[in-house]
Amino acid sequence: MAGKDHYYNKAKQEGYRSRAAYKLKQLDQLENVIDGGDTVVDLGAAPGGWLEVAAEAVGPNGNVIGVDFQRIKDFDDHDNVETLRGDMTEDKTRDRVVDAAGGPVDVVVSDMAPNMSGEYSLDQARSLHLARQAFETALELLDSGGDFVVKVFEGPDVDDFRADVEEEFQYVRATSPEASRDESSEVYFIGKGRLTAPVRSGDELEVEIESVGSEGDGIASVEGYRLFVSDTDEGETVTVRVEDVKPNFGFAQRIDEE
Ligand SMILES: C[S@@+](CC[C@H](N)C(=O)[O-])C[C@H]1O[C@@H](n2cnc3c(N)ncnc32)[C@H](O)[C@@H]1O
């Protein structure tokens, strides 16, 4: 039958609500996005294939929150999934999601897609708009070190979007999972390790070395964020260039000496 492919049949057989379930499985296998015990927020979640995959991945100690402007049927076999009905382009929906999360979350995923008009440039622009809404929500919700997955249709301004995501995560990987239809122009960005550090790679600043770590590097604190600086001693004030930023600490190079 037309449109019924391998993953469609597999979803039917394995009891997932959508073939899309396998995309999240493949994205998770690629970059280990969801861990047991995580709290996951899924934007554009109907009919709920991703919610089922996320519920399995987080296990009994995790939580999954799904939102869509379409109704998502209740899950009989997952009691750790909560669903909300609303439009993610509206602030009030975002506020409800933030309330439901009740604090920072580990993962934000978005499979949101616009209703297709058939005119690619219009659909692509709408897809990018939804991806940016998801990004804003992720920035509001994600804990330091948290991960973000977002779908977008290939086209103009997607490189700029990727660059913006790269600013906020340790790294970004772009991929088209095998379960995406062959003819599809969709790409998923996986942002790994949300950075909430007050510095970024390349920043130059003056810091005071407050202590020395077990490896012999000096340690400075920038608004509570630890920067390791080699070849420095406790009590020194030095000018450094930030070389590498991790979610909870970073590395900097001294630049005030020959
Ligand atoms: C490809 S489907 C998601 C499939 C889902 N990942 C699954 O596994 O079942 C895209 C969804 O995005 C939703 N969507 C699109 N725009 C939205 C918006 N502004 N707010 C909330 N949901 C939206 C659509 O209603 C649709 O259900």
Short description:
The protein has two domains: 6-194, Rossmann fold; 204-254, Nucleic acid-binding proteins (OB fold (Dihydrolipoamide Acetyltransferase, E2P)). The protein contains six helices and twelve strands. It has helices at 6-14, 21-31, 49-58, 91-101, 120-141, 158-168, and strands at residues 39-43, 63-68, 81-85, 105-110, 142-153, 169-175, 186-194, 204-212, 218-222, 225-229, 237-245, 249-254.
Commentary on this structure:
- With 258 residues, the chain is α/β, with parallel strands linked by helices.
- The chain folds into two domains: 6-194, Vaccinia Virus protein VP39 (Rossmann fold, 3-Layer(aba) Sandwich); 204-254, Nucleic acid-binding proteins (OB fold (Dihydrolipoamide Acetyltransferase, E2P), Beta Barrel), CATH 2.40.50.140.
- It is 29% helix and 33% strand.
- The protein has six helices and twelve strands.
- It has helices at residues 6-14, 21-31, 49-58, 91-101, 120-141, 158-168, and strands at 39-43, 63-68, 81-85, 105-110, 142-153, 169-175, 186-194, 204-212, 218-222, 225-229, 237-245, 249-254.
- The strands form two sheets. A seven-stranded mixed sheet has the order 3-2-1-4-5-7-6, with helices on both faces.
- Helix 5 (120-141) links the parallel strand 4 (105-110) and strand 5 (142-153).
- Helix 5 runs parallel beside helix 6.
- It is elongated and about 65 Å long.
- It starts with 5 loop residues before the first helix and ends with a strand.
- The model has no long low-confidence stretch (mean pLDDT 94).
- Bound molecules: S-adenosylmethionine.
- Residues 17-18, 20-21, 44-50, 68-70, 87-89, 111-113, 130 line the site of S-adenosylmethionine.
